[in-house]
């Protein structure tokens, strides 16, 4: 947008202002010189969690170290009301839903790292195939209910905040080395410290695997290599700090989004089609942020400016050019569907037994996400007031090309050939600029706390298409209102919330809340829902129990077409479709206990969710298909449960068993035979031994029973299995 403010100039100006404030801060700062933590949290301390006007959970670093999970979807099984759809088995591109929000690419959950939105393009294209590297994360916060209005822009389900490794107070570090089956190797190391007013941290995380799948006929790599480099530097003066954080990330994954026909799955669930041998995800990104935290007598201030740039190219199977030769549909999703419905030719093409030309697409995307945000908190009498503001802009530039390979009747593949550049493939530039603010007031009436909130979102969006014949500088733009090639939309939306906590006793707290939620949709009306929750918290010693009822009433359930959704709208990818009204309601239970024995403690943790999620009206669209009132929402299981039981001995030996049980669901609303996902159970084991105060060794077994259940169908009929039984061992050394 030519007349938009220059964000770099704006951010630089604000940074200069902050540096000036920091320089003069000691002259008028509060004498309180408590430690300032550079990682921005959204929940905070245990007392903050108890008083939270809604449900939330903190997964501590101690909890993360038990299983050494690198898959965020495994970690989040500890949180009730959160649903996951596994894709490639490693959690590289998770699909997360909170309380029934659409699951594709976690697009309807506010994903943050250290309080900053990290989706490459939160307003323009939030389903952008990126998630922070879980193996380097220090702790995790999950926020649901009325308090989620303070985050956004997605506020129906809630928010997930990943907290990075903090800068150590004393000079110290840690080295973790892990080895496992299928050529898995993971190295995580950091070193840092604080001297006087300055502190710094350097962190490296390297993770690779050869993959657990094989490729039919032609063989090939199905693994990945992912690396992160993190640098932090902090200057602290009294009750003020300024922290610079930089992240450089890179990934190459020989992964495919193509599932299997039912016949192929039954034959061998962990053999990919030969046609997917060239499928590869390549991405890299840079993230930079500057965070100021300060205390000015009665005011607490947090300010962050950031800039995230992210590029990815998922090169993958698009079409089989076989309609004339073999009378079958070309699209890979339709071909799997035809095979499921009994077409011998379709199955033969997938199996590599018929000669065809395969078309591969470079799903190229360039994303930007930059802006600044601040919050100011103060207390006045019974009021605890917070004002938050965010100003940002993001964009997605799509530049797609095609290549081809020939599949012979023996399943062999020719080398790639026939590179074709911009070729009528929705090449485009989409941009959003957004400002938002929220007001929150928590009123303390003794045992009763009441929190009211208000959020305003104002965002402008522009969509332009590049010319098919445009050169590499992409200067030509197709225009014309008739075919919607150049559009500009303005959106403003407000939401409100109210929540209350009441202390029945020192151990029991009642919670109630209501909030209006919304999710911005590019170029269309936002998705909206009214959300209610009622709950009770109990905490005494090492026992903590929560029970919540929740309800989300959607007035406009909306979805964006993506390739991975498997919907019949790929010709109009990224179009937004409405599913009308829908209701989601359920019960969330969570608890943790520690049973004490003679020299041994037995910690137990449980998370359980029961959900009913249905469409309230009939409709028909390219995305949702033919929907009847009462049909279930896709990928929302009727129940899910996670149980962790362990032991901790006085001599440093500990272990845990985790049982994850997921109820049945469907990949689309109009659930056919090959859209069903049966209930399944996953059991993981881990054991750890502290050799001394500095060094631990550990072993982990995932999927102990080596089950090969269908855990997702993506796209809609392509069956996928969970990762097979996998053993990994490692050690961690502190220094």
Task: Write structural notes for this entry.
Helices cover 9% and strands 54% of the residues. With 735 residues, the protein is mainly beta. It has a single domain (7-734), classed as Maltoporin, Chain A, CATH 2.40.170. It has a 22-stranded antiparallel barrel. A 5-stranded mixed β-sheet has the order 1-6-7-4-5. A two-stranded antiparallel ribbon has the order 2-3. α7 (332-340) crosses α8. The longest helix has 22 residues, at 7-28. 49% of the residues are buried.
User: What average pLDDT do the residues reach?
Assistant: 89
What's the total number of strands? 40
Distance between the termini: 51 Å
Name the CATH superfamily classification.
Answer: TonB-dependent receptor, beta-barrel domain
> How much helix is in the residues?
under 10%
Query: Low-confidence spans: pLDDT under 50, at least 5 residues?
Result: 1-37, 470-484
Quickly count the helices.
Answer: 8
Biggest sheet character: 22 strands, antiparallel, barrel
**From the helix content, strand content and strand pairing, which structural class follows?**
mainly beta
CATH topology: Maltoporin, Chain A
Write a brief caption for the model:
The chain is mainly beta and 735 residues long. Helices cover 9% and strands 54% of the residues.
Structural key phrases:
five-stranded mixed β-sheet, single chain, disordered N terminus, Maltoporin, Chain A, 8 helices, mainly beta, 735 residues
């Amino acid at each position: 947008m030519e007349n938009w403010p220059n964000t770099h100039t704006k951010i630089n100006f604000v940074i200069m202002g902050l540096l000036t404030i920091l320089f003069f801060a000691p002259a008028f700062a509060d004498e309180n010189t408590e430690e300032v933590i550079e990682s921005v949290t959204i929940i905070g301390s245990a007392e903050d969690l108890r008083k939270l006007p809604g449900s939330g959970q903190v997964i501590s670093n101690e909890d993360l170290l038990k299983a050494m999970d690198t898959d965020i979807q495994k970690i989040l099984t500890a949180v009730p009301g959160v649903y996951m759809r596994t894709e490639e088995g490693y959690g590289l591109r998770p699909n997360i839903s909170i309380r029934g929000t659409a699951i594709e690419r976690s697009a309807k959950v506010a994903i943050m790292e250290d309080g900053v939105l990290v989706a490459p393009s939160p307003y323009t294209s939030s389903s952008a195939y990126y998630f922070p590297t879980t193996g380097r994360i220090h702790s995790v916060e999950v926020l649901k209910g009325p308090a989620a209005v303070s985050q956004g822009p997605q506020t129906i389900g809630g928010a997930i905040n990943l907290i990075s490794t903090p800068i150590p107070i004393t000079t110290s570090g840690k080295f973790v080395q892990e080895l496992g089956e299928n050529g898995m190797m993971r190295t995580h190391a950091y070193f840092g410290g604080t001297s006087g007013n300055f502190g710094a941290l350097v962190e490296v995380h390297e993770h690779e695997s050869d993959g657990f799948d094989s490729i039919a006929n032609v063989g090939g790599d199905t693994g990945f290599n992912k690396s992160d480099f993190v640098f932090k530097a902090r200057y602290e003066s009294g009750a003020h700090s300024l922290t610079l954080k930089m992240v450089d990330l890179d990934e190459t994954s020989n992964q495919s989004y193509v599932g299997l026909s039912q016949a192929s799955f039954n034959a061998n669930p962990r053999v990919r089609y030969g046609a997917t041998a060239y499928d590869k995800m390549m991405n890299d990104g840079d993230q930079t942020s500057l965070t100021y935290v300060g205390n000015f007598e009665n005011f607490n201030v947090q300010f962050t400016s950031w800039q995230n740039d992210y590029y990815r190219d998922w090169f993958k199977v698009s079409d089989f050019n076989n309609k004339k030769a073999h009378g079958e549909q070309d699209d890979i999703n339709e071909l799997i569907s035809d095979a499921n419905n009994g077409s011998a030719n379709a199955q033969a093409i997938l199996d590599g037994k018929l000669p065809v030309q395969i078309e591969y697409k470079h799903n190229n995307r360039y994303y930007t996400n930059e802006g600044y945000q601040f919050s100011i908190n103060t207390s006045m009498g019974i009021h605890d007031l917070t004002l938050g503001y965010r100003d940002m802009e993001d964009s997605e530039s799509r530049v797609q090309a095609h290549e081809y390979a020939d599949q012979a009747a023996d399943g062999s593949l020719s080398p790639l050939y026939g590179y074709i550049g911009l070729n009528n493939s929705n090449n485009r530039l989409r941009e959003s600029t957004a400002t938002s603010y929220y007001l929150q007031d928590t009123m303390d009436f003794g045992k009763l706390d009441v929190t009211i909130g208000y959020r305003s979102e104002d965002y402008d969006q522009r969509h332009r298409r590049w010319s098919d014949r445009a050169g590499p500088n992409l200067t030509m733009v197709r225009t014309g209102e008739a075919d919607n090639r150049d559009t500009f939309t303005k959106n403003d939306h407000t939401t409100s919330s109210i929540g209350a906590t009441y202390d029945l006793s020192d151990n029991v707290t009642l919670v109630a809340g209501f909030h209006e939620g919304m999710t911005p949709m590019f170029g269309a009306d936002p998705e909206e829902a009214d959300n209610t929750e009622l709950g009770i918290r109990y905490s005494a010693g090492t026992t903590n129990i929560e029970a919540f009822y929740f309800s989300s009433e959607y007035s406009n359930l909306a979805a964006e077409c993506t390739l991975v959704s498997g919907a019949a709208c790929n010709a109009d990818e990224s179009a937004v479709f409405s599913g009308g009204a829908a209701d989601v309601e359920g019960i969330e239970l969570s608890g943790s206990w520690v049973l004490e024995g003679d020299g041994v403690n037995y910690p137990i943790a449980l998370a359980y969710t029961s959900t009913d999620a249905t469409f309230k009206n009939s409709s028909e669209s390219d995305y949702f298909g033919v929907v009847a009132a009462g049909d279930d929402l896709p990928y929302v299981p009727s129940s899910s449960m996670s149980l962790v039981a362990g032991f901790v001995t006085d001599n440093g030996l500990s272990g845990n068993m985790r049982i994850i049980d997921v109820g049945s669901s469907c990949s689309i609303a109009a659930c056919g035979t090959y859209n069903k996902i049966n209930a399944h159970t996953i059991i993981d084991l881990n054991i750890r031994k502290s050799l001394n105060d500095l060094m631990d060794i550990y072993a982990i077994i995932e999927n102990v029973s080596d089950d090969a259940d269908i855990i997702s169908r993506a796209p809609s009929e392509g069956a996928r299995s969970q990762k097979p039984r996998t053993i990994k061992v490692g050690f961690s050394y502190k220094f």
